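Morning run. Coffee first, then this:
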Amino acid sequence: MSLLSDLVNLNLSDYTEKIIAEYIWIGGSGMDIRSKARTLSGPVSDPAKLPKWNYDGSSTGQAPGEDSEVILYPQAIFRDPFRRGNNILVICDAYTPAGEPIPTNKRCAAAKIFSHPDVVAEIPWYGLEQEYTLLQKDVKWPLGWPLGGYPGPQGPYYCGVGVDKAFGRDIVDAHYKACLYAGINISGINGEVMPGQWEFQVGPSVGISSGDELWAARYILERITEVAGVVLSFDPKPIQGDWNGAGAHTNYSTKSMRNEGGYEIIKKAIKKLGLRHKEHIAAYGEGNERRLTGRHETADINTFKWGVANRGASIRVGRDTEKEGKGYFEDRRPASNMDPYVVTSMIAETTILWKP
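And here it is:
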């Protein structure tokens, strides 16, 4: 008699050319990830060759019941670390039957910005630092924390090692390897300042692919925590009090910034970002006011400032960038629940296209 795990791990390629494609999209809240699977006749590597599909938008808060059909357009393909073989994960965005992007489809507008000739010429690179918190399933309290109580104060947990400092490393390492298997450009992981909080980094990635890769990485993390019986939170301030919040620091550079004399281009870009501070804050995630307080390595939400090696600034420039006169900068304002399509395209639009 086969065990359930034996059947889950069947290698289909030994028996059929057919593959399973898991179509993934963003639901009505802007943060809930949805997916469903379909069978295809054989391996596919080009999203343009995948069929469009539909789903019931009235069940995801994206369409009324009397006109509920929403169409999925495949946009990016990754290897499936759960089914493995030739099976794939497919990042999609959502449209009405008439071909109009639905309101929660932020990828479409981002793709238009990234396809602008001036943006294409600058080859924008992004490195996204995704912080998140692991919670105990039934009590929604951070992993490793005593029920109804608190651990020792912050200090030993950041990049910490040991059973009393690092909680959930098996999940984190499984996610790291699964992302590498999938073909996501994940560049590292680390334990964060608050116990039960972790971070992974995606990039450097160019343009729209940074958003596709981060959403795929989020999906994989959701699936792994599902298996582990742990709740995944992207709340920017999951625990009130003297505990760090969770952000999605966004590292950014253009071709001009990476070339000789790039530091002057960086300073001009930062000035532009300062002029549009309110617009960026409004688009950088829900609940960010609970995180951007001027404490716990943040700048106050109503204040824009930048500095070299300053983790209390809105924008941080690294020492190496200052020394070499070229490089990149880090926007520290985005919350952990930000939409990477919105944040990455808005930074490009403000720094490349916007004329003050």
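The chain has two domains: 4-104, 117-353. Good start to the day.
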